[in-house]
Specification:
- With 884 residues, this protein is of the alpha/beta class.
- Helices cover 45% and strands 18% of the residues.
- The strands form ten sheets. Strands 7, 8, 9, 10, 11, 12 and 13 form a seven-stranded mixed sheet that branches.
- β7 and β8 form a beta hairpin.
- α3 packs across α4, α18 runs parallel beside α20 and α19 packs across α24.
- The longest helix has 30 residues.
- The chain is elongated and about 120 Å long.
- The structure holds one RNA strand of 78 nucleotides.
Length: 884
RNA sequence: GGGCGGUUAGCUCAGUUGGUUCAGAGCAUCUGCCUUACAAGCAGAGGGUCACUGGUUCGAAUCCAGUACCGCCCACCA
């Protein structure tokens, strides 16, 4: 670096150093004798692009991993992506649709080719973007959940659990997404209060021969289009209003099918009319009632959400269109009593936002009971800790109520379920077609390969990603019968910390813990740091439709990656939502510039080897050495508690306030003058220590300056420089400097008040116990001549108090005595009140009897300090009065 | 409906088992400065009944109870 510009330019610097890091393979990790520190990335969607949530998450990850690396650990951050079956498949379907192709027409294999093309074209962009952010992932270890090895891991896992008896196929009411044409898990359904209508319908009592009598009952429903699937009307057995209905049969309006009236406690007497239409095929609860009462199940809605021929009427109509039409028909038929406005929770698909249709279908399930209780114990025992802890409660609640996991999806993009059906409907589960054939032939020796039909469904994407902390190191999985111990897995597992959003605590975090316990017999990570959700500054979630999400790459382009990282970290405390504001990124950029310019100053110093160290510089060097150690300890404490933004703020203030505003100002030679060698060396040393402290949060600028601050060779990097260590120091050094600084502040405050230019040198007298070695420092920082005196004499000027010291600025200009008097009297009043408070405490017997000795001691000190201040003030007031 | 968390300065948040002069930080605001590294800067200043009500205690932002509001999770009263 030859000449330093007055402004820091991130762009020139960042690409250069990232390329350098890559070239030297600094991010790469192999097992060695050092302590491992491992993070697996929360795999983003393979075709996703970077958004602010990723920026937050990956910045935190990178801070942790860089810190660990500098702490001397063998840091390994494994990157990768997941295949996101629903999201990706729906994108590919949409693309094919634009080309006029339906996926059913081209078939599974052809479709998958398109999907892989899509993945090749759009995949991995996000990983490129993470490089821009400075993420130090071990790219040689990049994984994808659908790469062949990891797919094998998934299939093997399925077979493993099947053979263990924990996977079963069951007919269940599932959440059907009629747009994506797949079942989705309970967790992927979002309930939103939705404005709808409550339709009150007359059902006439049958005369027993399928003809209506003139008696009727009224039911209330939000889904009149499903009445054709009704199997019964249900009332509460205790409901006196409906006793007369016992044993009766009623007729479904419009189609006149006869159904019985049944009784079940499930029906709430005071809700609706107390009569419930039971539609087992299209309602979860009704299905349960149907099971209890042996009711037939009649499905009238098809996979796309349209009525089928079993509905008898409105065949082929979409369920919502049918709802409108049937209302009209019911009204015309005289069955519609009234329609109420009604708000009720409706389930929507997380992926497609389609209204979920409860649907009966055959699905694969994984039993949760054992896995959940193991995973709960992992967290309750503290082997995995949540940060913040509050998520523990949420986690426990879920684990105690976990329902079996529906792991099949009616999609093609994903790992196909390794179940093969025999012609007679029996099936075998094996990891390969060959093994399946063998197993099938054990059942029926006449079976040939072409007789077997593999299950059409694929597995839930989370069924891949729950293996992530294991499979990225050892795709064969320890559950595999031929498993051989793997060096990577043995070394890197369990991973250290996981950084992720609380929204996937059940989808992903809980299930990784389950897999970890099942396959490894221990937790997959020791800490889980939950970030908040990134919102805009008025609290709205960032979303494409609102357009309130900035493009992180634009921000990096404009402000630099270091600034963007700081901007995110400044406003993030664990578990709290992040209110993102570009102003914070600007603050980050300003910090870069501050670091840059302080370096310009330091680098510009002329050194005179012969020169003796200036007294003010010596004091400053001693002080900053202590201050650095003091702060390093504090920063370490913050990191150990995952208070990343506090750690950052502590470093920020150390650099800006302590190093720049105090230290550098104190040692800075006069214009054109050289600095002595001892001070110069100390200054460079401090600067380098500070760079190391800052590096995990701002990797680029720190590398740039670190490379320049001393002679470096190819292959040197700040990335592996050791984290500054806190050293022992004398606390008195800090205290006496702080006292001097307070005096300086007092002078500066007076300057401001009296409008005295900083250039104008002042004459300052100090009365009381003040270290003489601090005098040169005060003289320099306050631009004043300092004398420690026993008496101020008859000098004209302005006084102020610092703790129990009294200071006096001599001024030629006339001083407003009245003003001074008033100021002192106010201060006196405050002190007297304060003293009264302290004395009240001390004279309270119960206080002195109960409070710890240290607290009482402190109160006595307060009393003494206050007394001496009062004395000083009273003297001063007298003097002022006399001088009038 | 059930559970959990929150409410501290204009904004975002600290405040670590009740006790160091405890009411803090950053940003924002205001005042004065182009002082030879930095105006993306320097030096100062103002600003809060710690949501409300009661209780425990010598002592409460901190512990307890209730109230109000906010947020999150779980749960399809059709």
């Amino acid at each position: 670096m030859k000449e330093l510009a007055a402004k820091y330019s991130a762009k020139e610097v960042e690409d250069k150093w990232y390329a350098y890091w890559l070239k030297n393979r600094f991010f790469h990790s192999e097992p060695n004798e050092k302590q491992p520190y491992t993070i697996v990335i929360p795999p983003p969607n393979v075709t996703g692009i970077l958004h602010m949530g990723h920026v937050l998450n990956n910045t935190l990850n990178d801070v942790l991993i860089r810190k660990a690396r500098m702490d001397g650990k063998n840091a390994c951050w494994v990157p990768g992506t997941d295949h996101a079956s629903i999201a990706t498949e729906s994108k590919v379907v949409a693309k094919l649709k634009d080309m006029g192709i339906k996926k059913e027409d081209i078939g599974r294999e052809e479709f998958l080719k398109h999907a892989w093309d899509w993945k090749e074209e759009h995949g991995g962009i996000i990983l490129e973007q993470l490089r821009k952010l400075g993420c130090s992932c071990d790219w040689d270890r990049t994984r994808f959940t659908m790469e062949p090895e990891l797919s094998d891991a998934v299939i093997n896992t399925f077979v493993y659990f099947y053979k263990k008896g924990w996977i079963y196929k069951g007919v269940r009411m599932v959440n059907w997404d009629p747009v994506a044409h797949t079942a989705v898990s309970d967790d992927e359904v979002i309930h939103k209060d939705t404005k709808s209508h409550f339709y009150h319908l007359k059902y006439y009592i049958s005369d027993g021969n399928g003809n209506p009598t003139d008696q009727y009952l009224v039911i209330a429903t939000t889904r009149p289009e499903t009445i054709m699937a009704d199997a019964a009307i249900c009332v509460n057995p205790k409901d006196e209003r409906h006793f007369w209905l016992k044993g009766k049969k009623v007729l479904i309006p419009l189609i006149n099918r006869e159904i019985p009236v049944i009784e079940d406690d499930y029906v709430e007497m005071d809700f609706g009319t107390g009569c419930l239409k039971v539609t087992p095929a299209h309602d979860m609860h009704d299905y349960e009632i149907g099971l209890r009462h042996n009711l037939p199940v009649l499905e009238i809605i098809d996979d796309s959400g349209c009525l089928n021929e079993k509905a008898e009427i409105l065949i082929g109509e979409d369920r919502f269109v049918a709802r409108k039409k049937i209302c009209k028909m019911l009204e015309e038929a005289g069955n519609l009593v009234k329609v109420e406005e009604y708000i009720s929770p409706v389930g929507y698909s997380e992926r497609t936002d389609a209204v979920i249709e409860p649907k009966l279908s055959a699905q694969w399930f994984l039993k949760m009971e054992k896995l959940a209780s193991m995973a709960l114990e992992t967290v309750e025992s503290g082997r995995t800790q949540f940060i913040p802890e509050k998520y523990m409660n949420t986690y426990r609640h879920w684990m105690e109520n976990a329902r079996d996991w529906c792991i099949s999806r009616q999609l093609w993009w994903g790992q196909r379920i390794p179940a093969w059906y025999l012609p007679d409907g029996k099936f075998v589960v094996e990891s390969t077609a060959e093994a399946a054939l063998e197993a099938a032939q054990a059942i029926d020796p006449s079976i040939k390969a072409e007789d077997l039909r593999q299950d059409e469904d694929v597995l839930d994407t989370w069924f891949s990603s729950w293996l992530w902390p294991i499979s990225v190191f050892d795709p064969q999985m320890p559950g595999h019968p031929d498993h051989k111990p793997n060096a990577d897995l043995a070394y890197y597992y369990p991973t250290s910390d996981l950084v992720t959003g609380p929204d996937i605590i059940f989808f992903w975090v809980a299930r990784m813990i389950m897999a970890g316990e099942e396959f490894m017999g221990r937790e997959p990570f020791s800490h889980v740091y939950f970030t908040g959700i990134v919102r805009d500054k008025i609290g709205r979630k960032m979303s494409k439709t609102l357009g309130n999400s900035p493009n992180p790459l634009d921000l990096i382009e404009n402000y630099g990656a270091d600034a963007v990282r700081i901007g995110m970290l400044l406003c993030s405390s664990a578990g709290n939502d992040i209110f993102y504001d570009e102003a914070q990124v600007k603050q980050g950029a300003a910090f870069c510039n501050k670091i840059w310019n302080s370096y310009r100053l330091v680098k510009g110093f002329q050194v005179d080897e012969e020169l003796a160290q200036a007294p003010a510089a010596k004091v400053a060097v001693d002080w900053f050495r202590a201050k650095l150690s003091d702060t390093v300890a504090l920063v370490e404490d913050h990191y150990s508690k995952f208070r990343i933004s506090d750690a950052l703020m502590t470093i920020y203030k150390l650099f800006w306030d302590d190093y720049c505003a105090w230290y550098l100002e104190a040692i800075k030679p006069a214009f054109g003058q050289p600095v002595d060698k001892a001070t110069y060396d100390a200054t460079l040393y401090f600067f380098e220590e500070l760079l190391k402290l800052i590096h995990p949060v701002m990797p680029f600028i720190t590398e740039e300056l670190w490379q320049d601050i001393a002679e470096r060779r190819e292959g040197d990097t700040i990335m592996y420089a050791p984290t500054p260590k806190a050293e022992a120091f004398d606390p008195e050094v800090l205290k006496s400097f702080e006292l001097a600084a307070e005096i300086v502040n007092g002078v500066r405050g007076t300057r401001n008040q009296k409008n005295i230019a900083p250039k104008q040198q002042l004459s300052l007298m100090i009365k009381g116990a003040f270290h003489s070695e601090m005098i040169p420092l005060v003289e320099k920082m306050a631009n004043a001549n300092v004398q420690v005196v026993a008496d101020f004499g008859a000098a004209q000027g302005v006084g102020f108090m610092v703790r129990t010291l009294e200071a006096f600025i001599v001024l030629d200009t006339l001083v407003n005595v009245e003003e001074e008097l008033e100021k002192s009297q106010k201060e006196l009043e405050y002190q007297q009140k304060f003293l009264a408070g302290v004395r009240a405490k001390l004279s309270n017997e119960r206080f002195t009897a109960n409070a710890p000795a240290a607290v009482i001691e402190n109160e006595r000190k307060k009393e003494a300090d206050s007394l001496s201040k009062i004395e000083i003030l009273e003297n001063k007031i007298n003097q002022l009065k006399n001088s009038k």
